[in-house]
Structure formats: structure tokens, C-alpha cells
Amino acid sequence: MSSRLIVLVDEHWPARPSAPWALVGDDGRLQAEGSSEPRHWPPADDCVVVLAGSQCTWHETRLPRGARREEARLLAYALEDRLLNDPDSQHLTVVGREVEDGGVTLGVLVVARERLRAVCAQLAAIGRPPVAAHAELQCAPGGDAAWHLAIAGHGLVLRPGTAPAIALDPPLAAALPLLSHALDRARAANALPASIAVHAAPGVDGEMPSAAADLGCRFEGAAAYLWWQACPAATNLLQGQFAPSHKRAGWAGRLRGPMRLVAASGAILLLASVGEVLWQRQRLDDLELRMQRLFETALPNTPAIAPAAQLQRRLDEVRMHRGQLREDDLLALLAAYAQARGVATRDSVGALDYRDGHLTLALPALATAERDRLGARLAALGYDAEAGRSDAEMVIRAQVVR
């Protein structure tokens, strides 16, 4: 069974190396927990980091509906006046999306790039490269219409209904002015909650100070605050340039064997194809050389312009001198037609005309499909066949250029 080490780091880590941690199985059950320096953390298959408190801020903004590829640029522009530093120095992660008429409302978690880079680099240096990073703002109890206040030794998180969560610095008494300001804004918007659920971490006093009675809102005790419990449902901040490279390498490692086999097969196929091409080229060169020698023997002192046609013409001349048929003679063309037409030759010709090596046949009973098949058979025998002056006529001639 695999295990996952979840580490909560505050803004002072790693200068103060001790950090709370929880060891969780793949079934989500807690196996061990504690707070110690990295050398005392238990072994685990994966490591997850939770950024505590004010290292992250949560904003909501509205963008016009448009191409998703422009979303990062539009987000940086929309949040520019709400960020303490330049937007280019901040890492933005969309954690919520609500499409409305004419636009889309986005929930965005913001963390400084250098801070996220430093945390990931330090964990990698000690052999604990993180596979995920979450904001405590999103891991704290909440997400429904009610208000929730999570209290831990390292800080407080207020989740005012479905609005973005707010990180408050401890102790609780010092955080009351900010809590009062949030309640005043809700009162002005006629959205004052009837009560606030208070979640105190184990070992932390969740009793509200007496000054809280002046806030005009009731505080009720709720389930204990377990900072690691909601991590599986939280958004992973390690996206884009922060995506864990060792996980990508793990996938590549599992595919390395099949990829090598595919590469080797491709190389063998390529070599075989190259060998085949070279062999065919050699055969072609041999045939061309043989044809050239035959041409020089048959037609001495004659430039080779179209060797095949010139040799065929010479062969026809020799045949004619010896009383044999040329390929474009009447009997040769009729023999080719009879061979191509087969048993259907008899009584198939209505009339014929032979002139200048061209045989024109009148084939009145020949259908179009059969005419096409006849033309293909004649082409296989070395003759061209095309339509004559009418659809019933077919002109047959030798393919050799005169």
C-alpha cells in the first residue's frame, strides 16, 4: 500500500525547519502525524506540501467569455491592482469557474513564484520532491453557504460562505478586528451569517475571547480542524512550469522499454527499406545499361531520345523488310482486338476502317461497362483504345510513338 507524506510549511520554513506533517495511506486514513525537522519525517512514496496562511491569497474576478488560451493574460491584467507585486512574479491557479451570461467568474489562488520555487527546490534537495502543493486557504473547512473559522497554532482561516477564504494571523484576539471588518461588509451587503462555525485544531483552545460578543454574531463549536484532511479535494498548485518533473520521468521510465522496442523496429524497417531501394535502383541501372547497349547495337550513330519507341520503330522496319507484320498493321490490330474480346468476338464488329496504323471498329452492341473492360485489356496488350466519332466506334492503335 502506498503512502503520502503531507507537510504544512509556514512562511518561515525552511529557516525554521520544524513543520507539522501527516502520513496518510492511499485509502485516506491517517497512519501517523507529528511536527519535526525533515530528517525525522517518516518515509513515504509521495510528498505533498500545504502552504499555510498568508503565503497564498484567494481572489475572485470576472472575465469576458473568450478563448481559454488568453485566460492567463486576462487574469494577470484583471488582478493587477489587487496584487502587492508585479503579476509576472505571481503564480496564478484557477480553482473555480462559474459561467454566466456575458462572462465567467473565476476563483484564483495567487502565490509568489519565488516562494513556490524555493519550497519545491528545498524539498527536492532533501529527497522529498513534492507531487502536489495546496493552499491551506482551500484545505480549511468550508465551501458551503455557512461561515467557518479554522483555528490552529500557526494561524487562522476564515471561509465566509462561498466567498474566497481569508488568512488571519494569530492569536485569535488580534484577529478580531479583521473578523469584525468581514462581518461589517457582510452586514452592509445584507448577507450577515446567523452564526460562525469554529473549528479548532486538536490541542488548540477554540474558546472565543469575550470581545467576540461585540461582533454581533454567534460562534458555535464544530468538528476539529484537521489541516491535512481536505488535501485530496484541493487544487494542485504545481501546474505549468511547476509541474513535477520526476512524475513525468516516472511515466517516461515505464514507457522506456516499449519506446526502445518501437525505435529498434523502426530502425530495422528503415534499413530494410533503404536496402530495397538501393537494390531496385541497381536493377534499374542494369536494365538501363542493357537497353543502352541494345540501342547502340541496333541503331548505331543515333541519339537516344525515346529508346523504347525508337527500338520498336526499328523492329517494325526490320519486320516489314522481312515480310512480317508490324504492330500497327491491320492483322496485328485485329488479332489484338480478338484476343482482348475473347469468345464475344464473333459477329461483334459492324464495320471497320484502317488508316495510318489506326483501326476503327464499329461495335454497336457493346455496352459502356464492357467497352471500358475491353479498353483495359487492350492496354495490357500494348494498345491504346479510345472512342471514335460516335459512341459505337472504337479506335485501336499501337502505344509506341511514331
Helicity level: 25-40%
Category from helices, strands and their pairing: alpha+beta
Question: Strands across the major sheet, in which order?
Answer: 3-2-1-4-8
Average pLDDT taken over every residue: 84
**How many DSSP-defined strands?**
17
What's the helix and strand layout?
Layout: E1 3-9, E2 19-25, E3 30-36, E4 46-51, E5 56-63, H1 71-79, E6 90-100, E7 103-112, H2 113-125, E8 130-135, H3 136-139, E9 147-152, E10 155-160, E11 166-168, H4 172-188, E12 195-200, E13 218-221, H5 245-298, H6 307-321, H7 330-341, E14 351-355, E15 358-362, H8 368-381, E16 383-387, E17 393-398
Parallel strand pairs: 1-4, 4-8, 9-12, 12-13
Antiparallel strand pairs: 1-2, 2-3, 5-7, 6-7, 9-10, 10-11, 14-15, 15-17, 16-17
Brief digest:
With 402 residues, the chain is an alpha+beta fold. The chain has helices at residues 71-79, 113-125, 136-139, 172-188, 245-298, 307-321, 330-341, 368-381, and strands at 3-9, 19-25, 30-36, 46-51, 56-63, 90-100, 103-112, 130-135, 147-152, 155-160, 166-168, 195-200, 218-221, 351-355, 358-362, 383-387, 393-398.
